[in-house]
Amino acid sequence: MEFKITIVTVGIMLMYSLPGFALVKAKKIKSESISAFATVLMYVCQSCLVVYSFQQVTFSPELFKEMLIFFALAVIVQSVIIVTYYLLFRKKYEDVKYRIVTIAGVFGNCAFMGVPLLEKLLPDYPEAVVFSAVYSISMNLLGWTVASAIITNDKKYIKIKNFFFNPSMIALYIALPWFFCGIDIGDTQAGAAIFLLAKMTTPMCMLIMGMRLASVPLKPIVTRRLNYLVILLKQFVMPIIGLIVIFFLPIDTNMKLTFYIICCCPVASVVLNFSEMLGQGQEMAANLVLLGTFGSIVTIPIMMIPAHFLF
């Protein structure tokens, strides 16, 4: 089942990326304009996605407690791995490729790839999709601070202000009161507009990837050894680390399985989005996202084998 789900998801991702690829090749979009698309995605679509995600569930104290636990786990695991990779690669940080590697080896495609997997593998556990959104928020918070500092090799991004006042957090400040009060905005015109922009996130991500791939040589994707190291780190090593961390914790088994599945997701398209917005390492990021996505056809089914035995 995991193989079929992954094949379908990868196929859809490629379909979304084709128009972006074709428009750049036809010179209808200039490569220097790609960062503008990434800015719209990160500031508008991703923010709306946060609001949309919290509108899909009904508040309960128990669910909120589990969301906080899941958020803490996501932040801790990702932070520890980022620090580990930073220590491994920092001496090579003059080369932007290694700065991108540090982030790509941690950030996973928990939304577009993770949600279909969670819905199919845990059909009786709708909370899994909500936890995916919580994980995505934690990833974006790290993205606007630590990851931005690493990609640019500039510590100015690591500020308290950047943590509490970035698009994801501002969207969270809007979403939480509605979530706590049980206010459903889905039937309002404002809600419909927010939901539409939220659903643009995935197509926009893939369009940007297609645009960037059209402007860089494709040969390095399959010939650069460093690319395969990243796939090993993100799609094999990180899931194992995540599994070790959550296996002995006194939390619900489905919650553990959700966390593990998310850890198995391939290199996140958000790595490319941040690199586009910051203007650093776009070629490397695009290569890793594409190779990781294709590689997930093999890596996800393999990494699901221990889950069948342990959970």
Structure overview:
The longest helix has 29 residues, at about 60-90. Helix content is about 75%, strand content about 0%. It contains 15 helices and no strands. Helix 1 (about 1-25) runs antiparallel to helix 15, helix 10 packs across helix 14 and helix 12 packs parallel to helix 15. The protein has about 300 residues and is mainly alpha-helical. The chain is globular. The chain has one domain: Na+/H+ antiporter like fold, CATH 1.20.1530.20.
Characteristic terms for this protein:
single chain; 77% helix; mainly alpha; Na+/H+ antiporter like fold; 311 residues
Proportion of strand residues? under 5%
Number of distinct helices:
15
Mean pLDDT: 90
By CATH, the topology is: Na+/H+ antiporter like fold
Number of strands: 0
Quickly give the structural class: mainly alpha
Oligomerization category of the chains in this entry: single chain
CATH architecture level-2 label:
Up-down Bundle
CATH class: Mainly Alpha
Cα distance, first to last residue? 17 Å
Largest pleated sheet: none
- Categorize the overall geometry: globular
Rg is 18 Å
Low-confidence stretches: none
What is the domain tally? 1
Percent helix: over 70%
String of helices and strands: HHHHHHHHHHHHHHH
